[in-house]
Structures are given as C-alpha cells and as structure tokens.
Amino acid sequence: MHEHSFIQAIISNIENKDNVVEITLEVGELAGIKAEHLKEHLEEEMPWKVDVVERTSKVKCACGYEGRAKIRQRLHDLVVYCCPKCESFPEIIQGEDIKIIKVVYGD
C-alpha cells in the first residue's frame, strides 16, 4: 500500500503526536495520492480531525503555455501529465507536493 508511505512521512514530521487533535494538509493534484484518499487513510491511522485542501497544478512549458497541467492518467502512485497545448512534458511550478499547513494541539 503506497498510502502507508505517505501517511508515515506525515506522521514522522509531527511533534507531540499524542496531543494532536486536528491537522490541515495541502495536497497537490500531481502528488502520487488523491487528496480524499490521503484524508481517509490518515483518519484510519490516527485519531485526528483531518482537513485537506487540494492545490491545483501550475506548469510552464517550452511552447509558452503556463497554467494547469492536463492529467492523462493516474496510476497507483504516479500521475502522468502533459502540457494541454502541445502535449509535451512541462516544468511543474506548483501542485506536486503534500504540505502540512496547520497542526492543532489539545490540552
């Protein structure tokens, strides 16, 4: 299960895990896991309230296009994308990362 590696990476970056009550994540649409799947699996693993914000992609292509990537296929832990204008492989500006935005601790 590739979800496990994403979840373990998030958990390992949180201090005082036992006191966490809520976490907010930003998940790029080009990350290797869909935002709703990450939320579901993290809530199964930890007793936290999990909020997920999906970040749309932004790419820059040699053809001059700058904007959202065209997702061609979503595989197990890989997103295949291209430039929607010329269908070549563009540079990613945003939307491939998973970021911890906020952690709320209880008493």
Can you describe this structure?
This protein is α+β, with helices and mostly antiparallel strands and 107 residues long. The protein has a single domain, classed as hypothetical protein PF0899 fold. Helices cover 21% and strands 39% of the residues. The chain has two helices and eight strands; from the N terminus they run αβαβββββββ. It has a three-stranded mixed beta sheet with strand order 2-1-8, with helices on one face. A three-stranded antiparallel beta sheet has the order 4-3-7, with no helix packed on it. A two-stranded antiparallel ribbon has the order 5-6. Helix 1 (2-12) packs across helix 2 (35-45). The longest helix has 11 residues, at 2-12. The chain is elongated, with a radius of gyration of 16 Å. The N and C termini lie far apart (33 Å).
Protein topology:
Elements: H1 2-12, E1 20-28, H2 35-45, E2 49-55, E3 58-60, E4 66-67, E5 70-74, E6 79-82, E7 91-94, E8 98-105
Helix pairs in contact: 1-2
Average of per-residue pLDDT values = 93
Number of helices: 2
DSSP strand tally = 8
Alpha-beta content class: alpha+beta
Order of helices and strands: HEHEEEEEEE
The largest sheet is: 3 strands, mixed
In helices, the fraction of residues equals 10-25%
Strand adjacency order, main sheet: 2-1-8
Please state the second-level CATH architecture.
Answer: 2-Layer Sandwich
Radius of gyration based on Cα positions: 16 Å
Basic shape: elongated
Number of domains: 1
What is the CATH fold-level name? Answer: hypothetical protein PF0899 fold
Strand portion? 35-45%
